[in-house]
Amino acid sequence: MSKNLFLQIEIMSLSLYFMKTELSQTEENYLKAIFSISLSLNKAVSTNAIAEKLKTKASSVTDMIKKLSEKNLVDYKKYQGVLLTEKGKKIAVKIIRKHRLWEVFLVKYLDFSWDEVHEVAEQLEHVKSTKLTQELDRYLEYPTHDPHGDPIPDENGKIAHHSDTMLSSIKEKQACIVMGVKDSSTSFLKYLDNANIKLGSVVNVIEKVAFDDSMRIEIQGAQLSISHQISKNLFVKKI
Amino acid sequence: MSKNLFLQIEIMSLSLYFMKTELSQTEENYLKAIFSISLSLNKAVSTNAIAEKLKTKASSVTDMIKKLSEKNLVDYKKYQGVLLTEKGKKIAVKIIRKHRLWEVFLVKYLDFSWDEVHEVAEQLEHVKSTKLTQELDRYLEYPTHDPHGDPIPDENGKIAHHSDTMLSSIKEKQACIVMGVKDSSTSFLKYLDNANIKLGSVVNVIEKVAFDDSMRIEIQGAQLSISHQISKNLFVKKI
DNA sequence: ACAAATTTTTAGATATGTCTAAAAATTTGT
DNA sequence: ACAAATTTTTAGACATATCTAAAAATTTGT
User: Fold this and answer.
1) Gap between the Cα atoms of A167 and A185, Å rounded
2) Which of A78, A207, A216, B208 has its CA at a distance of 20 to 30 angstroms from the CA of residue B180?
3) Chain A contact set for B123 (CB, 8 A)
4) How many angstroms separate the Cα of B131 from the Cα of each of A106, A112, A119, B96, B155?
5) Chain B residues within an 8 Å CB radius of A127
């Protein structure tokens, strides 16, 4: 009888471990936040960092982390921050994939501009349907990058690595192509629209000003001066 | 001082009344349920009817009704059931509009069949963005009916009225066109697929069997016999 | 190294939406 | 009309996700 009980408990734990747990939107947002913070970090993600990212309080983060830890989505040791497990990483990447696919859809077919897509994609990314994601991907013709130049993970979670050269690091007389934006804030994107800077734009660095790190660039025949704040938020590829 | 206080309270009440209250998905689902029940009913909607529709308990419904009532979305008197206010009706229709637009999108562009769309549309309908709905409508070329033949409310909430003739009421030798389905269950829709019955199909009533109310019909040259259960769930238009 | 500052966790509260069980009101049947 | 059946509401719990305030642990600065 006792042996039977243990067997039963083992089966329960196993099914719990493999269970296709439907996550809440909140849980999904935590995973996404942890993923994106740990991208630019080689250590465990701190409670405060997550709290700041999600505009919530550290105590709320601690509670949620415990929950995610019980579901084997994060590795957590008290006071030591968290890291996503493989399982947690897979889910985070899946959500990012959905987010970016929807962004492409909104810009490509629904006339959204690149500064309008984020808020709506934040909602759409939580819709649960494998078929939906697959069909959307097909319909969009398997895009590799979203409207901000960020790579879209494929069905297996593989992510093309992003250009990591900033325009600010390009030397005088050198030409490059705009590959993405580091900052996706509305104000920055609107500035770029105004300056006629788009993904794929060819930029020639005419002159660099040592004093304030600003630069004079040429884009589509027109010259303009951009501050360091701008140039250090543009991913480019040298030609 | 006291006059000032009253003024303040009045302003607060006014702003509460006009406040653009973001509703939760649950609240939206209650409004939708009440709307759809009251369509086939000329009196207040009972607590139990809502509970059954939403697969929840009557006590939960009472709680939610109180909340919706405080937000002026339903008229509620204890033990007397509820009716949507104009404000509530507007929101319900908006959600139904979004639901049906998404269904059209899924079938038209993402290769969903008409029995697969409901579940996903239930999620998509709660995404909040006026621009999204407008642009989707435009992109779909302002469809008037969803894949099940249900009318899509326009931007002002106007709904084309639905055919209310059932195939079961059509007389022998009379021809008609399939306009919609009353039952949208997977099993019914799959049966129709199998029998090659689609929206727009021309159906000829060959013979009616008084004994069990079944009928022999002709569709696209082929003859088949359908039960009353089937014929009473198909909206048609006489030719 | 150890006191101060910071970070993180815990404890206890609040809000939403759900439930069961019991009480109250309404409707039904004879 | 009034007892029985049904419906609806209330009361009290519970789960999720949040917060504030205080306690505990870790990190920092001298």
Assistant:
1) 18
2) B208
3) 126-129
4) 10, 8, 12, 16, 12
5) 120, 123-124, 127
Q: Residue B144: phi, psi to the nearest 5?
A: -105, -15
Domains of chain A: residue spans and CATH: 21-84 (1.10.10.10), 165-238 (2.30.30.90)
pTM for the structure as a whole: 0.90
Long-range contacts: A116-124, Cβ < 8 Å, 24+?
A116/B131, A117/A147, A118/A184, A119/B129, A120/B127, A120/B129, A120/B131, A120/B132, A123/B126, A123/B127, A123/B128, A123/B129, A124/A98, A124/A99, A124/B124, A124/B127
Using a CB–CB cutoff of 8 Å, tell me whether A119 touches chain B. Answer: yes
What are the backbone dihedrals phi and psi of residue B86, each rounded to the nearest 5 degrees, phi first? -55, -45
- Among partner residues A120, A128, A136, which is closest to B129 by beta-carbon distance? A120
* Of residues A114, A135, A133, the one with CA closest to residue B113: A135
Residues with Cβ within 8 Å of A20's Cβ and at least 6 positions away in sequence, in order, are none
How far is residue A95 from each of residues A50, A124, B15, measured CA to CA in Å? 17, 10, 37
Which 8-state DSSP code applies to residue B161? P
Confidence bin at B18 (pLDDT 50/70/90)? low
Contact B124 A119 (CB under 8 A): no
Q: pLDDT tens for residues A38-69?
A: 998 888 999 999 999 999 999 999 999 999 99
Question: Where do we find the tokens 């269904």?
Answer: B103
Q: Which residues of A62-95 are buried (b: 16+ CB within 10 A; e: fewer)?
A: eebbeebbebebbebeeeebbbbbebbbbbbbbb
A130-139 and A86-108 helices, crossing angle to 10°: 40
Q: Please count the residue pairs, one from chain A and one from chain B, whose beta carbons lie less than 8 angstroms apart.
A: 44
Q: Is the CB of B27 under 7 A from strand C?
A: yes
Kind and range of the H or E run holding B53: helix B47-53
| Tokens of residue B47, six digits | 């607590």
The answer to whether the CB atoms of B129 and A139 lie below 8 A apart is: no
CB neighbours of residue B195 within 10 Å: 15
Chain B residues touching residue A124 (CB < 8 angstroms): 124, 127
* Per-residue pLDDT at A228 exceeds 90: yes
The answer to whether the CB of B65 falls within 8 A of the CB of B74 is yes
Q: What is the pLDDT of residues B176-204, one digit of tens each?
A: 999 999 999 999 999 999 999 999 999 99
Greatest distance between any 2 Cα atoms in chain B: 84
Q: What is the pLDDT of residues B87-132, one digit of tens each?
A: 999 999 999 999 999 999 999 999 999 999 999 999 999 999 999 9
